[in-house]
């Protein structure tokens, strides 16, 4: 089932990319609320990038799975949890405040690592969604030299949970334009190369908006219990 899903999704990603004339994005398997056994199945199909949204769940899984997995933290990150993931995390997709940036810097320095992050922008402008505003993102990029152990490689966004393609696409597209604009800021800490947009229900639209990473859970593993 999982193997078949992955095969189909990979085919669709290639088809959509061809349809819109873009480079195919990387597939990140969102394994939150799914078992170690199922993650291993996806791994055995060649998937090496996995996304989790809760620190506790993530650190309970990591020791039981292959060491060459790239773990992506895609959910809200509380500052008091940074210390649990900084040693091994591959990329944090949910940098959304200077307070969090400060803490990542502190922990990264302690472990002599440079942490790859994406700034999460609240592209749907809904109050209950995580992420900062476009203005705050610009501010964080400007302040980055004060946080030398942090790199920003791009942006992450979650589109509104509605069934209107136009609205979803416009939210993705605005982030893509911003991403393109920020490419001019390139320096040792800013290297705009990743646009993490697209989930199971909207990844075709994300690919159309030049996504470089799609984060798919349900489409790979089936429905979650929560
Ligand atoms: C859960 C989650 C996903 C995956 O959602 P699906 O609809 O199951 O593909 C992607 N991104 C984030 C931030 C998530 O929390």
Report what the structure shows.
This protein is of the alpha/beta class and 226 residues long. It has a single domain, classed as Alpha-Beta Barrel (TIM Barrel). The chain contains 9 helices and 8 strands. It has an 8-stranded parallel sheet with strand order 7-6-5-4-3-2-1-8. Strand 2, helix 3 and strand 3 form a beta-alpha-beta unit. It is globular and about 45 Å long. The protein starts with a helix and ends in a 5-residue tail after the last helix. Bound molecules: pyridoxal-5'-phosphate. The site of pyridoxal-5'-phosphate has 14 residues, from strand 8 and helix 9.
Summarize the topology.
Elements: H1 2-20, E1 26-30, H2 36-44, E2 49-52, H3 55-61, E3 70-73, H4 82-85, E4 91-95, H5 98-110, E5 115-121, H6 134-143, E6 150-157, H7 165-182, E7 190-196, H8 203-208, E8 213-216, H9 218-221
Parallel strand pairs: 1-2, 1-8, 2-3, 3-4, 4-5, 5-6, 6-7
The site of pyridoxal-5'-phosphate has 14 residues, from strand 8 and helix 9.
Q: Which spans have pLDDT < 50 for at least 5 consecutive residues?
A: none
The helix fraction, in percent, is 25-40%
Structural class: alpha/beta
Radius of gyration (Å): 17 Å
Query: CATH homologous superfamily name?
Result: Alanine racemase
Q: List all distinct small molecules, including ions and cofactors, that are bound in this structure.
A: pyridoxal-5'-phosphate
> What's the number of helices?
9
Shape: globular
What would the average pLDDT be, to the nearest integer? 97
Oligomer: single chain
Main beta sheet: strand number and arrangement?
8 strands, parallel
Remind me, CATH topology?
Answer: TIM Barrel
CATH architectural name: Alpha-Beta Barrel
User: In total, how many domains does the architecture comprise?
Assistant: 1
By CATH reckoning, the class would read: Alpha Beta
Strands in their spatial order, largest beta sheet: 7-6-5-4-3-2-1-8
Kindly estimate the percentage of residues that lie in beta strands according to DSSP.
15-25%
């Amino acid at each position: 089932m999982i193997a078949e899903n992955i095969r189909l999704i990979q085919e669709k990603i290639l088809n959509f990319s061809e349809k819109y004339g873009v480079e195919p994005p990387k597939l990140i398997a969102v394994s939150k609320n799914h078992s170690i056994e199922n993650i291993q199945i996806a791994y055995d199909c060649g998937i090496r990038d996995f996304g989790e949204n809760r620190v506790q769940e993530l650190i309970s899984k990591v020791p039981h799975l292959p060491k060459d997995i790239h773990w992506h933290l895609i959910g809200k990150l509380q500052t008091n949890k940074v210390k649990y993931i900084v040693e091994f995390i591959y990329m944090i997709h949910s940098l959304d405040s200077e307070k969090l940036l400060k803490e990542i810097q502190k922990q990264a320095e302690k472990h002599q690592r440079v942490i790859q992050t994406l700034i999460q922008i609240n592209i749907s402008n809904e109050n209950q969604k995580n992420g900062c505003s476009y203005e705050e993102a610009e501010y964080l990029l400007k302040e980055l030299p004060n946080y030398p152990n942090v790199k920003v490689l791009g942006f992450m966004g979650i589109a509104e949970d509605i069934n209107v393609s136009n609205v979803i696409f416009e939210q993705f597209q605005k982030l893509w334009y911003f991403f393109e604009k920020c490419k001019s800021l390139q320096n040792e800490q800013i290297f705009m190369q990743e646009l993490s947009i697209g989930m199971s229900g909207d990844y075709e639209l994300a690919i159309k908006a030049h996504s470089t990473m799609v984060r798919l859970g349900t489409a790979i593993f089936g429905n979650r219990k929560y």
